[in-house]
Amino acid sequence: MISITLKLFAAYQDALGRPDLEMTLPEEITVRELCDRICTQYPDLKQWQELTRFGINLQFVEADTPIHDGDEVVFIPPVSGG
User: Fold this and answer.
1) Which domains does the chain possess?
2) Where do the DSSP E strands lie in 1-82?
3) What percent of the chain is helix, strand and coil (3-state, nearest 5)?
């Protein structure tokens, strides 16, 4: 198992009611699999699932990037405003 911090923005933060979440996950999980897991728990987020960008440790990453112990993972859905 690995421990990570998940940072949440916009719709994700609204749905979970908090800006971040400490999580314990199985090894070999990717950011896409983590997003799928969160969107299954919070079905209102499904509309953003395919539009979300991901980051690990302050770097944008592709959805198939594996997550490692101690990583800070970020979900960034599209936002509007100016």
Assistant:
1) 2-76 (3.10.20.30)
2) 2-8, 20-25, 53-56, 59-61, 72-76
3) 35, 35, 35
CB 30 within 8 A of CB 63: yes
Which helix (H) or strand (E) segment holds residue 37: the answer is helix 31-41
Cα 59 to Cα 1, 46, 53, 54, 56: the distances in Å are 23, 24, 11, 8, 5
Nearest of 16, 71, 55 to residue 63 by alpha carbon = 55
Q: Do residues 69 and 4 lie in contact, with contact meaning Cβ atoms separated by under 8 Å?
A: yes
Whole-angstrom Cα distance, residue 6 to residue 3?
10
Identify the pLDDT of residue 81: 53
Walking along the chain (82 residues) 10 residues at a time, the average pLDDT comes out as 95 92 95 94 90 95 97 86 52
